Amino acid sequence: MTSMEEKVVESIKTRFPEDIIEAKVQRKNRVSISVRSDKIYDVGLFLRDELGFNHITSVSGVDYIDTKEFEVIYNVWAIDGKVLVSLRTKIPRDNPTLKSLIKVWEGAFYHERETWEMFGIKFEGHPNLSLLLLPEDWDGPPPLRKDFLLPDTPQEKLEEKIKRAGGQ
Amino acid sequence: MVVDIIRPFFIGLYHAFKRTFTVKHPFVRLKPTERYRGRVMLNIDRCISCRSCTNICPNMALEMVKFEKKLVPQYDAGRCCLCNLCVEVCPSMALSMVHEVEFSEYTRKGLIYPPDRFSQPPKPITEKTLTVKILDKKRGVAHG
Amino acid sequence: MIPILSFSEIIELILKVLIFPGLAFPLLFAMIVIWFERKFLARIMLRIGPLHVGPLNRTGLFQPIADFLKLIQKEIIVPDNAYKILYNAAPIIASIVASMSVAFIPYAPKPDGGYWMIYYTPWSLLVILAIFTARPFIMVGAGWASNSKYCTLGAIRAALQLLAYEVPIALSLVSIVIMSRTFDLAKIVEAQSSIWFIILQPIGFIVILIAMMAELSRRPFDIPLAEQEVVFGWPTEYTGTQFALVMVSEYFDLCAVTSLITVLFLGGWSGPAIPILNDVSPILSGVFWFLLKMAILTVIIIMGRGIYPRLRIDQLLDAGWTLLIPLAIIQIIITLFTAQWWIPLLGGV
Amino acid sequence: MSIMKLSMGPQHPITGHFRFILDVDGDLVLKLEPDIGYTHRGIEKLAEKRTYLQNLPLIERVNSYCDSVGTMLGYLEAIEELMGLEVPERAKYLRVIAAELNRIASHLYAACLFSVATGLETMLMWPINDRELILDLLEKLTGQRITYTYPTIGGVRFDMSEGFKEEALKRLDYLEKRTEDYYKMLLWNHTFQIRAKNVGILKPSDAIRLGIVGPNLRASGVKADVRKDEPYEVYDRFDFSIPTGKNGDSYDRLEVRFKEVEQSINILRQAIKDIPKGPIKKWAPPIVPKGEVYTRVEAARGEFGYYIVADGTMKPYRLKMSPPSFRNLIALPYLCRNVPLADVPVIYISLDLIPMDVDR
Fold first, then answer.
1. Could you list the pLDDT tens digit for every one of the 144 residues in chain B?
2. Which among A152, C12, C122, D312 counts the fewest CB atoms within 10 Å?
């Protein structure tokens, strides 16, 4: 008796033996699959149609600045199977492009747009990659990249503060 | 259908003669509950200048200043988010949360509490006060 | 030809124009109703309402006056591309037109045979109907002249709403006219001296009440002013004194409408004479009953704001044409068939 | 035929901190495009600069005025899973109590906003008044009315004070009785029904495809609730049902929320009855071991997801939130196609989008 999680790992490994870098069961209800970036669309279609992963949960990017890579993670929940799959892929940091998955999961529309805005990852085939959360006149780098440094927390000089407070 | 249209009329009319929920605030004040976190207060004698509070404060509302040859925190109520982290982390129990309800000031400067003001207890509420329990009795909520 | 008036007639005219049905009365009515509306709705919502201003220990009685004083101090802002003549004239015209109709409503009979009204005409019902019809045109004009999208939307909605309420009002007035066989409001009141028309024509009363609430843009029919949809409808851009005029004109309208319904269905001034008032003047007794009936109607109309959500414009048009107009026609048919029995019972015709 | 561009918000009575760009033809809205970001505070970036403990007051401000405990639970779940920390039983119960009280407060808030959208101001004030009772209760439990910072890593801050149980039970009784008035005034009010029924119908297949969560998904008839699917804290010990709607219209979305309030009262009664004695907090180290985790909790507006990458320091390497309102946002342009202008506020409010939650 194999659990749903193991079944997912098995079937994805048999279907895409070449393109899957790693597929494992993390814990109960969690499966992690990492794929090559050019095959993510096919794997996504397979996950949706064959395995019933139909409910997109989030799209997130992680900036691994040490290895000069972005990781993009699609977390998809299966409403019937009650398993969450993390479909992850790594793309180079200097040319971050990825095929958009909104044809697979339509709900990823705003998630992908946000990821584009925050990390500068271009999603090919996305109809509207424009600024969503940031102000319209934003011209800085994508803010969630690790090389975008926040200014130090505005902490006024001690003397100034005491002077304003009228203390000694 | 006609009943559903007319019934709200009578329910509304009935409620017009019930007691109001609102407290007439400037004339009557509501007493905060025991655990209410109004602002932070410092006990200067107990402070051991360990800087735990300034390190943990997420918003940098506390800052160490020199006061009577001793380093003690100064408090900025405008930055404070009343999260209680500093009170929990203080090893000598010098910080505590007090019941201050109204601490609006006319200037930003007034919100900065230097150590001497920081260690003052808040003004007690002098006007007529109501507790939640009395209020509930009036509202007819929790009968007792 | 200028009629030559005696001294007492001039005094009476001045009293009429300046104090009772004239200038002071709608203003006082507006003030009290605004206060009452705020306080009463607050009580329905379990709030307190206005609290600070005025006498009688925390009742907030003078809150409307305070608001008005605040509003007249404010700067009048005219939008850049507005059609300025119409834009500036609209609030003034609106308040004039709204307060005009009280001139044609009889408030009490005089002991010498006339009526306590500013201008007597045998066609007063038609005149008032005409004045009511003028109001949406001011709304449309003001909305268009503001050159703002929300104002225009509100104005178009006001024009659409006209289609929903105007025909039922006219139709339900027909049955009143059949019953009393006159367009004279004073004669209509006298016809009700033995039995009120609300008892004879309950359907007509409901139709006219609903249609008049739509005419007044009171909730659930405040579609032209729908705050959640078109901000404030056609008067969105008005500020300061102009806004105050717009607001006051709404309450003038409320005054006129409640007076009219009182006259048409609730028997106007008729009621048992009250000894104390009757000693001073028999007019006061009539006025007392008139105002009491107006107050009850006002409360009912105000309650709509506390208990019903707003309808959509298509739903209102639907209700107007498929519910109110058939009901009004049914009332006409019933009246036609039963008039032969009722008319001899009515007094004064 | 000409199309007018209408900009609704951010200064508009109903939209809050949103802006909608509408294509209006007469009274018909052809297209709606939401313009969000007016309350964007960059919490995900700020969280990378603060320690895990300092993040607590920050995280609850994602959705502070309605549902701060529900928002925080996912974050704490994630950290505790990374640490392998087992929270004491009593703390779990207290977390559930606070979260469910928050859910009631949030749903009452949603109901009052809904009635504002249709123009019924009385039902704005009544649920707000009764929400006050819940806030009083939470003040007694946590010491604050809105931003409690109540749960913390490894447990909760404060134990139940004396007399909390009795007071809570009384208030729940009152609230249950009071719901009848709401039904009579709002849900069974014919005028309200014709405004809300058959407006903004979201079919179950569409709801799943678009990734809708929470009460909106359940109103479409899909039985999906994290509290049942993968129970966190102690939700598996309570006996409660998941209310679902039939048509998936705006009316159903409100009704489901009212039914959920009843279920929350049910859970609260069980939790207050069963709560065990014991410690309320366990010491937790400030450093979180290296790893990645994705946790989901059912906040009041729906499923709240946290994806945390920890690199073995005191600060998170990456903290990704996927709040429910952000995921429900896509339903708004989908539903507001070829609807009358008057239905836009109803649809918008029925989805219960909170700008702070969308923008983070």
1. 788 888 888 888 888 888 777 777 777 777 788 888 888 888 888 888 888 888 888 888 888 888 888 888 888 888 888 888 888 888 888 888 888 877 777 877 778 888 888 888 887 777 677 777 777 776 666 443
2. A152
A111 contacts chain D (CB < 8 A): yes
State the maximum Cα–Cα separation within chain A, in Å, rounded to a whole number. 76
Domain ranges of chain D: 52-359
Tokens of D297: 């909790």
Chains C/A: 3 or more C-beta pairs closer than 8 A? no
CA distance D313 to D8: 45
Q: For residues D291 and D308, give the distance between their C-alpha atoms in angstroms, rounded to a whole number.
A: 8
Among D173, D170, D144, D175, smallest CA distance to D157 is for D144
| CB A56, CB A100: distance < 8 Å | no
Tens-place pLDDT, residues D187-211? 888 888 888 888 888 888 888 888 8
Cα–Cα distance between A129 and A123 in angstroms, integer? Answer: 8
pLDDT tens sequence across D112-153: 888 888 888 888 888 888 888 888 888 888 888 888 888 888
Chains that touch C (3 or more CB pairs under 8 A): B, D
Q: Indicate the domain borders of chain C.
A: 81-345
Query: Under an 8 A CB cutoff, do C44 and B12 touch?
Result: yes
Domain ranges of chain B: 22-139
C124-149: pLDDT as tens digits: 888 988 888 888 888 888 888 888 88
Contact assessment for residue D297 and residue D303, using Cβ atoms and an 8 Å cutoff: yes
d(CA C109, CA D120): 42
Looking at residue D1, its pLDDT comes to: 55
Provide the CATH number for the domain formed by D52-359 in this structure. 1.10.645.10
How far does the CA of residue C323 sit from the closest CA of chain B (Å)? Answer: 13
**Number of cross-chain residue pairs from B and D with Cβ atoms under 8 Å apart:** 80
* Torsion of Cα atoms, D79 then D80 then D81 then D86, to 10°: 180
Please report how the helices C149-180 and C202-215 are oriented relative to each other, as an axis angle in degrees rounded to 10: 160
- Residue-range domains of chain A with CATH: 4-149 (3.30.460.80)
Query: What is the β-pairing status of strands B29-30 and B129-130?
Result: parallel
Instruction: Identify the architecture of domain B22-139 in CATH.
Output: 2-Layer Sandwich (3.30)
